[in-house]
């Protein structure tokens, strides 16, 4: 499936595995890239820039296809050494970086000088337009259905994608709530050049998380998520469990971040993926889990999506168009 995105980023199919904390590791990223998509290593999952260099090398041992690194830049009291992670990506010769979080203005010139393409993730049209003006090479537009931080506008993909497509001229992929061929076809019809998937790739054989987590995604419905941090204007969509429900209640009762800090600690969320204890902490998952009913390999998933999307376009959509044209012709005669 050739689109503006595949041409610009050098991949075979317009399907991207988004960066996921604790999940975007070599085994998953390489499997996605080997299947023709764009696999992404999550930079800050690696404890140090030196560890990231090693993970990039490990990925290269597993694939000779293009892959990228996610660098999520967020303001914090004790921020990680972002510039050192940036330099690790550049010096390792990675061809693509997915930036997210803060404005990437300070990073784009460094990446471009090294020949690295920048795919920037946004949650609003205004931020996408600004990123395009900064010179990024592609946009990932993230709808309200997504896992993680959907922004504070609450605009679902059905509206956000075409609204962004009307103002974006560079390649744009749609993110948030995508899990199958129907979503891929819909994204293309709405003006995107491909899709980004996190939760769907979280539930694959190669995802480096406990099998219990994957089975939970299969069992869950689109209703089984919680929106935490809403009163703090820092909304995040996570799996519904004892911890996330407690966080929602504490903040709804007037609590502050300090009251939930220990509950939402990243180490606890990492423990969910490592031990399979679904109530050990908060873990990100999107409403797309309501569309997931199996745990395939990345190759099986991508091949299925492309085949079914092609069949949808060539079969149902084109036949419907042809039938409508025939009926119109008959009516005219």
Write up what this structure looks like:
It is built from 14 helices and ten strands. It has 333 residues and is of the alpha/beta class. The protein folds into two domains: 4-209, Aldolase class I (TIM Barrel, Alpha-Beta Barrel); 221-284, no CATH class. The strands form two sheets. It has an eight-stranded parallel β-sheet. The protein has a two-stranded antiparallel sheet with strand order 9-10. A hairpin with a 7-residue loop joins strand 9 (225-228) and strand 10. Helix 3 (49-62) runs parallel beside helix 4 and helix 8 crosses helix 14 (298-332). The longest helix is centred in the last third of the chain and has 35 residues, at 298-332. The protein is globular.
Q: Which spans of ≥5 residues are poorly predicted at pLDDT below 50? A: none
Q: Radius of gyration in whole Å, from Cα?
A: 20 Å
Provide the number of structural domains: 2
Total beta strands = 10
Residue share in helix? 40-55%
Biggest sheet, strands in spatial order?
Answer: 1-8-7-6-5-4-3-2
Shape: globular
Which series of helices and strands comes N to C? HEHEHEHEHEHEHEHEHHEEHHHH
